[in-house]
Write a structure and sequence with these properties.
Number of helices: 12
Structural class: alpha+beta
Radius of gyration: 22 Å
Helix content: 25-40%
Strand content: 25-35%
Oligomer: single chain
Shape: globular
């Protein structure tokens, strides 16, 4: 068992307060703190208290640190990455590939000789990237496509001639026709369309019309930051999700999404494959995005936890990761798992105990516990535990 030293990512959309306060640093910070990474992703692995990067330690002794089942299933790598994500402004509209899509795309770009750090590189590795976000503060997000009939009503309500081709494509061919139609517009037509949508959406908000008010409010806000971006119009066809603290959402491969604001604990398959569809100044590979998008429409369920070993577990339909919210008190509770685990303390002070002794985690600190290592925790404290979902 080791305490971890973790990297912070300072993206422009990050919060100046949430992660600095979690880490006990001055707040507000002088720059945005967007993500705190805990894991063994090769881009920025956590460092063990003995000085070894976690990915190197796992590579040197995978059966001991991962357990034989995880090693056999995923190879000599930690299959999940845990983060604290804190957004003051929206992230890009994006989707992630399936494993099969990632393997094909990665192999093609490797064969083409595109450097992995090239700004136009789409597939950074051959892995999928499903993810779960559990809210620490109220979170708002765009998540998947809302029912087509609802999208048609949302678009038609704006009564804009500029939207008629999109409405016609949606009515005729569904989302699989409407989204490519929008993405293929010329820059001039995009600018005209987004400006008209923004102005009309803002007028409904100003009139306090309750129908679609959050959707329209965000469309106007997004257009201010990303004028001419088709993601503004696409946002009208996405579910607008609000999470209260303790609620979560699972995002499978192909799900088009964007976190708009708020903070949460995020656990994902350890991958860096992101295909952007808008609300960004970064590279957008339209052909690859259309290939991986899941055009299924419908509401996205809010994920509520169930009682499981160690605390409240958020069940997900993948083997790569598993998230549990562990409220520990002064009496020791068992947190042993068959796979490797990362434990993050977000409230109070936790004392972790193994056969090697005790490790104290203050708020914002985390630890890596090898597979199957008996461990208990006492508090009072709130811990988030990431492990795999393999049950053997």
């Amino acid at each position: 068992m080791w305490q971890l030293t973790n990297a912070v990512r300072h993206y422009p959309w990050g919060s100046h307060t949430v992660i600095p306060e979690l880490l006990g640093e001055p707040s507000p910070a002088d720059r945005p703190y967007a993500e705190l990474w805990m894991g063994a992703h090769p881009d920025q692995p956590s460092v063990l208290s003995d000085g070894r990067p976690l990915d190197a330690a796992i590579s040197a002794d995978p059966d001991v640190l991962l357990g034989s089942a995880v090693h056999e299933r995923f190879g000599p790598r930690l299959p999940f990455l845990m983060k604290v994500l804190a957004a003051d402004t929206p992230l890009s509209l994006q989707a992630h590939p399936t494993t099969a899509q990632a393997e094909v795309g990665f192999a093609a770009e490797e064969a083409a000789g595109i450097p992995r750090d090239d700004a136009t590189r789409t597939f950074k590795d051959p892995f999928h990237k499903p993810e779960i976000l559990c809210a620490l503060t109220p979170v708002e997000a765009l998540c998947g496509f809302r029912p087509v009939e609802e999208s048609l009503h949302c678009l038609a309500k704006l009564q804009l001639p500029e939207l008629m081709p999109t409405i016609a494509a949606l009515a005729r061919g569904g989302l699989r026709a409407a989204i490519p139609q929008l993405l293929a517009l010329s820059a001039r037509r995009r600018e005209s369309l987004v400006r008209a949508v923004s102005q009309r959406a803002a007028s409904f908000v100003a009139a306090h019309d309750p129908e679609f008010i959050n959707t329209y409010r965000w469309a106007a806000t997004l257009a201010d930051t990303y004028p001419g971006d088709p993601g503004v119009v696409i946002s009208l066809m996405c579910n607008h999700l609000k999470l209260a603290p303790g609620e979560a959402v699972f995002l499978p491969a192909g799900n088009l999404h964007a976190y708009l604001c708020g903070a949460g604990v995020e656990v994902m398959a350890s991958s860096d494959n992101v295909l952007r569809g808008g609300l960004t100044s970064k590279h957008v590979d339209l052909a690859a995005l259309i290939e991986v998008l899941d055009f299924t429409d419908g509401k996205v369920p809010v994920l509520h936890p169930v009682l499981g070993p160690g605390g409240l577990r958020y069940p997900v339909p993948v083997d790569d990761f598993d998230l549990t919210r562990c409220q520990v008190d002064v009496d020791p509770g068992v947190l042993t798992t068959s796979g490797p685990q990362v434990l993050l303390c977000t409230e109070g002070q936790a004392v972790l105990t193994t056969t090697d002794g005790d490790l104290v985690l203050e708020r914002g600190q985390s630890a890596f516990v090898p597979a199957g290592r008996p461990v208990t925790a006492r508090g009072p404290a709130l811990l988030y535990r990431a492990t795999t979902a393999l049950r053997r």
